[in-house]
Amino acid sequence: MASGTTANLAEDMLKAFATGASLPSGSGFKLHMITNAVVPDWDADTLGDFTEIATGNGYDGTGIDVEQSGTGFPTVDESGANDDWRAKIKDISITASGGAVPPSGSGASYALLTDANGTAASRRVYLFLDLSSARTIADGDTLTIKQNSRGEFDIGLAKP
User: Fold this and answer.
1) Cα 28 to the chain's mean position, in Å?
2) Are 59 and 33 in contact (CB under 8 A)?
3) At residue 148, does pLDDT exceed 70?
4) Which residues of 3-37 are buried (b: 16+ CB within 10 A; e: fewer)?
5) Residue 96 burial (10 A CB sphere; 0-12, 13-18, 19+)
6) Lesser CB count within 10 Å: N end or C end of the chain?
7) What is the pLDDT, as a whole number, of residue 104?
8) By mean pLDDT, which of 20-24, 59-63, 134-138 is the weakest?
């Protein structure tokens, strides 16, 4: 499965463009790590439809903050002959401390970018990132999610 956007993103962007509706719900965005129990796609709706990895040792399940600003998205530009516009998300790192992340159960197969709704299960999914395999971060290691120059996401695992 590839990474991609969801119908929620298209819907909310068109509503904001056409009617001035606010986007997103809450303050900024959240990144959540999920298992492969349910595979995200264009029709992904809310975080509650997915199974988040077990919490502990550096991952608390509240979502990693992604600011709705130049900090959270440091580059927004046009690239390529096809007039492709891209918003590049900041590099996001999770470091396991005191044990593996997740401490039990299945590793993370996907990352979801959601709104920051105060009710986590109701957070709307805007983007899903395929981590290429179920990832478990060993104690002391760091998983870094970063976007390359083509707008695709690179996943790296390294000791600090």
Assistant:
1) 12
2) yes
3) no
4) beebebbeebeeeeeeeeeeebebeebbbbbbbbe
5) buried
6) C
7) 96
8) 20-24
